[in-house]
Amino acid sequence: xxxxxxxxxxxxxxxxxxxxxxxxxxxxxxxxxxxxxxxxxxxxxxxxxxxxxxxxxxxxxxxxxxxxxxxxxxxxxxxxxxxxxxxxxxxxxxxxxxxxxxxxxxxxxxxxxxxxxxxxxxxxxxxxxxxxxxxxxxxxxxxxxxxxxxxxxxxxxxxxxxxxxxxxxxxxxxxxxxxxxxxxxxxxxxxxxxxxxxxxxxxxxxxxxxxxxxxxxxxxxxxxxxxxxxxxxxxxxxxxxxxxxxxxxxxxxxxxxxxxxxxxxxxxxxxxxxxxxxxxxxxxxxxxxxxxxxxxxxxxxxxxxxxxxxxxxxxxxxxxxxxxxxxxxxxxxxxxxxxxxxxxxxxxxxxxxxxxxxxxxxxxxxxxxxxxxxxxxxxxxxxxxxxxxxxxxxxxxxxxxxxxxxxxxxxxxxxxxxxxxxx
Length: 423
Ligand SMILES: C[S@@+](CC[C@H](N)C(=O)[O-])C[C@H]1O[C@@H](n2cnc3c(N)ncnc32)[C@H](O)[C@@H]1O
What we know:
Blueprint: E1 4-10, E2 17-22, H1 25-33, E3 44-52, H2 55-65, H3 71-74, H4 82-94, E4 98-102, H5 133-140, E5 146-147, H6 149-156, E6 168-171, H7 187-195, E7 203-208, E8 223-228, E9 231-235, H8 247-256, E10 259-262, H9 269-279, E11 282-288, H10 298-302, E12 307-317, E13 323-332, E14 346-348, E15 358-360, E16 366-368, E17 372-374, E18 381-383, H11 385-389, E19 397-399, E20 408-409, E21 412-413, E22 418-422
Parallel strand pairs: 6-7, 6-10, 10-11, 14-17, 16-18
Antiparallel strand pairs: 1-2, 1-3, 3-4, 5-12, 7-8, 8-9, 11-13, 12-13, 15-16, 18-22, 19-22, 20-21
């Protein structure tokens, strides 16, 4: 009995690629194509097949060699991308267990589907101190800080799967399948592609921002990627930049989307926030920690219309796939339960708060730091973004002023905060 390694791909869902081993190539393909619930048109075909001396050994070697790749777990290669595919094949062919490539003829369907790509972020760390973050962010252009897959997964897995059922998710700052530069492929797009069926999504729409274009939008190359059920489509409307505030993007946001999910460009955080809030849609986005006490955000926190998600996001990937630190946090209006960060709030009597974490400003307003919160102080007092993100407003405190508070101590401006009060 022969031993084989293969890579298959679904015809209408080119993002669905799987790598595996089998003793019987034709039976395995039949198995793929007999899977229950699968459309008849969406057949699988082999992208690569080869005979090997020991398929288990080679499969384990693939797992080890690509151990940083998340698709190793499920043997799925989301998205298909030419570079990754080439790497797998190169690795397999150069392995001592490789015998020969096998070419299997499969019935070609007439339907043409564009192949989409996947990127795999590197996990190499670059020891940057947190202090460097903001300066570095400016140097490297933090609009191009990409979210790591594991951070998307960590946050999204905290919510009940039911929130996605039959919903259209709009990732409006996310390159789903960047053809020029695979590094730009978004982990948000990856996550939703990967979990599409499992969470019962109806549709996923991702838009690619082509950057600023000339006066007449000549050469605008923004595109809209839609996964509707198992069909994947990529459209390049004329003059479309792919900006989240382009009329076409706003139309998708307002008329099609149920939930918006992305990490928008930091430099457009406020515009993005205002656009999203105005749409009235559910959202789950990453923003800078300090935005929790930004005047554009405060009114919505104050009225309990928005709150922090579960996690902070400390690490991002630069376009060179290097890790870099930045102070991100999830912001949402999707209900969350049992916030683990409550534990970080130290709600105790004022006199028990260590002196170094409490002071009064020139207006005699109490400022408390390090997540210390007085539970016996009746007047408004000022806190930083942290306690707000840790759920202070769910613990019997309210925001009392709709703009951020900028304390002065001995005439010197201190860090911005927000004024809160025990209810
Ligand atoms: C901070 S990065 C995050 C990318 C991706 N959402 C992620 O989480 O990895 C912001 C992205 O938004 C893109 N972008 C910049 N301006 C934009 C705009 N006006 N509309 C949509 N996307 C934009 C950038 O090119 C960049 O890819």
